[in-house]
Amino acid sequence: MTEPLNPEMFDPLCPSDLVPIRVGDKWAGMIIQCLEDGPRRFSELRVPLRSITPKVLTQSLRALERDGFIVRTVHAGPAQHVEYELTSLGRSLLDLLDAARAWAEAHLDELIDAREAASPANRTS
Hints:
The chain contains 6 helices and 3 strands; from the N terminus they run αβααββααα. By secondary structure, it is an alpha+beta fold.
């Protein structure tokens, strides 16, 4: 059995949209990271991704499945459940996502400063 996902896996204050490389949508990289250690149920993914709505998580999972990064498996029986797991293609993204996250962490202050400087509230006409 896989260890439970850490609810604090993703810092809610960390602006995930500052990561320079995206696979799919805003949530795809985080979903891929959640699946790194093995298959997970939908409800397990919701723990560290607590700010995502069920609808958006479903859309992201479907897009990742369509693109060949994850596989969805329905386990039949009295306790029917669905699990999501990385494919070899999805697993090949882990190093790239780790590198992008490390880069973003190293440059976080610069990225935030640039965002704030470009915000409409800080512009003068």
